[in-house]
Specification:
alpha/beta, Rossmann fold, 6-stranded mixed beta sheet, single chain, binds ligand F0G, 13 strands
Length: 404
């Protein structure tokens, strides 16, 4: 069994190569950087007891003797959605329940790798801009590693569960007026100016290396599906999944690649718009109920569009009503609780079936990126509690319980 020897950080744009353990987030030319992973024969290491992200250590570049900062992230359930799948006449419909990660979102996959690398490179503090999930995950992993966490968030625009996590982990919180895009701008300025802060947003190439493992798990469990449906905000996750799938193909582990359906909220859909019109434009004041993906200037938009095109996939924007309807359907038809940003996948799938991009009889996996409890504060307003009035209560007992 060979160990992973990633030989370089490589620029997407000009192909320039840099040493792996340089705290560098962009190329001299301004392009984004990714790790080049040499073709590996074996997907997993020989230790069968390891579950989750680190099972795929062969594919993850980290310093040799790094202390791994982990909380058992990954190995999330892939759950069949029988009722909804039958209704939509699909052969198989699954959801990958990323909300069951330690801090309740897929971000933990990338954070275990990025915080491990940051610590190994001598970082004392980590920083990120976030709509909440990245911030919560980074704060937790920073505590576990004994590092300081600073998060920059759009004031008043992050869901209550995520605020609670920031309070619990005691992150230093810098609020900015505006959207995630303003927070991202601020954080880039700060990390340029104060080089001791390690930037943990997904332009950090280590994040991508952890997040790609969701693709490995899906393929190990059910082989290659026809479609993977991904909610898209900043575009880091769709890029990660596509990178992981391509590495599997280069290693000869799979032959065919799935197609990717990218789904955005219609108030924040620069990537879906660009895919449909052929012309990219930022959205200056993004707005959607799905606060996690309320992003108008995605850092990875070019990578996202490239992944969709290379996969012969599609991109679509869905409106807030359909997002909430899908959140409710997943909960009430299947018992699956996801946050609204994850529910966009079901709304997008419905559109894709209407458009006949996805055909009946195909196998589809939705990426359920975050846990419903992230929005615990908003849910009773969106879907009121079914409180029984005294008379009505009695009626229900009679009807469902049967009279004595
Ligand atoms: N779903 C959830 C629940 C998210 O939190 C995010 C991103 C996405 C989907 C989209 O992923 O940005 O890689 O395209 N949340 C980031 C954050 C922006 O700050 O937590 P993406």
């Amino acid at each position: 069994m060979r160990r992973c020897e990633p030989n370089a950080l490589v620029c997407d744009k000009c192909g320039r190569r840099y040493p792996v353990f340089e705290n560098r987030l962009r190329c001299e030319c301004g392009g984004l950087l990714h790790f080049e992973i040499k073709s590996i024969k074996n997907l997993t290491s020989q230790k069968p007891k390891i579950r989750g992200v680190w099972k795929y250590k062969n594919f993850i570049p980290i310093p040799k003797n790094a202390e791994i900062i982990s909380m058992g992230e990954g190995a999330t359930p892939l759950i069949r959605l029988k009722r909804i799948g039958d209704m939509l006449k699909l052969k198989d419909l699954f959801i990958k329940l990323e909300g069951s990660n330690p801090t309740g979102s897929f971000k933990d996959r990338g954070m275990t790798v990025a915080v491990t690398a940051a610590k190994a490179m001598g970082a004392r503090a980590v920083i990120s801009a976030s709509t909440g999930n990245t911030a919560a995950s980074m704060s937790a992993y920073a505590r576990r590693a004994g590092l300081q966490a600073i998060v920059v968030v759009p004031k008043g625009k992050i869901a209550g569960g995520k605020v609670s996590q920031l309070a619990l982990y005691g992150a230093a919180v810098l609020e900015v007026i505006g959207s995630f895009d303003n927070a991202m701008k601020k954080v880039l300025e700060l990390s340029e100016r104060y080089r001791g802060f390690y930037l943990m947003n997904s332009i950090n190439p280590w994040r991508i290396e952890g997040q790609k493992t969701v693709a490995f798990e899906i393929v190990e469990e059910i082989g290659v599906p026809d479609w993977i449906v991904v909610p898209v905000g900043n575009g880091g996750n769709i890029f990660s999944i596509w990178k992981g799938l391509n590495e599997l193909r280069s290693a000869g582990i799979i032959e065919n690649l799935p197609r990717i359906l990218a789904v955005q909220a219609s108030g924040a859909s620069p990537i879906a718009n660009a895919f449909q019109t052929g012309k990219y434009a930022d959205i200056s004041s993004p707005s959607t109920v799905a606060s996690a993906i309320n992003i108008g200037r995605p850092v990875h938009w070019e990578r996202a569009i490239k992944a969709i095109k290379e996969s012969s996939g599609q991109a679509v924007a869905v409106n807030d009503d359909n997002i909430l309807k899908s959140q409710l359907d997943l909960a009430r038809s299947e018992g699956i609780g996801v946050e609204s940003a994850s529910a966009v996948t079901l709304a997008g799938l419905r559109r894709a079936l209407e458009e006949e991009w996805i055909e009946k009889g195909e196998r589809v996996v939705l990426i359920g990126t975050g846990n419903a409890l992230k929005e615990a504060d908003q849910i009773p307003n969106r879907f009121p509690l079914n409180i029984l009035q005294s008379g009505e209560g009695l009626e229900i007992f009679r009807k469902l319980g049967g009279e004595m």
